Amino acid sequence: MTGRRYELVHTTTYRYPGPVTTSYGRALLLPRDLPDQRRHTAAVTVDPAPADAAEHRDWFGNTSSYFAVTTAHTTLTVTAAATLTVSRRRAEVAALPGLAWEAVARLVADGGTGPDGVPLVDRREALLPSRHVLPSDPVRAWAAASFTPGRAYPEVLADLAHRIRTELTYRSGSTTIATTQAELLESRTGVCQDFAHLMLAALRSYGLPARYTSGYVETLPPPGRPKIRGADASHAWVSAWVPGAGWVEVDPTNDQFVGDRYVVLGWGRDYGDVPPLRGVIFTEGGGARPEVSVDLHPLDADPDPASAPTSVPMP
């Protein structure tokens, strides 16, 4: 298999102010194994060592890792390590099927079977409101400029991504997971998960199936500065279903379709389906904010460094 080879290490550390007697956690930190993304090795390790651990596939096919640490501890470290090859080709508007967006929405609404042979009822799940993506009049009104009558659906996807990139400002810490799309449009500042949620809300408002994708993107440091190991970050983007092309990946934060610099971790309806870590601790002290280090390290020479984003997107 040809493509870009990567070594991925994602480390999360919790330092508690007092002893924790028990930690129960669930991690979604192992990249998916896909036709255009082959996972060679992958493992999650926990320190202190868990008394119980298991893996399973969730509803969306993501690898979910469970652990229970029963040794008293003040520090908990969860590390996911993987090696993989990504051969994903970046979609191009001109090369995608040019069906109008209204025709795509009618196709899904009418049901039956899609061009890929999958029953279209399976696509409707990606239309439903979810905890963090809710239909609203402000979102539909904002998105209307992209949904001109008869416009080819790939052009709509590219235009939405471009507008999010140019009309909104990326600012770390400006939002929380509870921020709604209407609030985002008022403030015009957010981070990658906000931008992905906004694009999802826009597409679903017009009857078009779309899902939230969590993963990583290889970035380059500013000119003249070396890349710092461990300074990469998790990222989020959108997968939109295009008849005849399948799920097409679009990154509104960086205003581009997704190629071989992106590693897919998992997907779902919104961020709530694919958080990297969640769990419960038992302690008389307080909780702790996670310290996160991510390193997506290419194992091959870079044939086209100019194509990598230079900003580091934070979730």
Written description of the protein model:
Helix content is 17%, strand content 36%. The chain has helices spanning 101-110, 137-143, 153-167, 181-187, 192-205; strands at residues 4-27, 37-47, 52-57, 63-69, 73-86, 169-170, 189-190, 210-217, 234-242, 246-251, 256-257, 262-268, 277-283, 291-298. Strands 1, 2, 3, 4, 5, 13 and 14 form a 7-stranded antiparallel β-sheet that branches. Helix 3 runs antiparallel to helix 5. The relative contact order is 0.23.
Short description:
With 315 residues, the protein is of the alpha+beta class. The chain contains five helices and 14 strands.
Write the topology of this structure.
Layout lengths: L3 E24 L9 E11 L4 E6 L5 E7 L3 E14 L14 H10 L26 H7 L9 H15 L1 E2 L10 H7 L1 E2 L1 H14 L4 E8 L16 E9 L3 E6 L4 E2 L4 E7 L8 E7 L7 E8 L17
Parallel strand pairs: 6-7
Antiparallel strand pairs: 1-4, 1-5, 1-13, 1-14, 2-5, 3-4, 8-9, 8-12, 9-10, 10-11
Helix pairs in contact: 2-5, 3-5
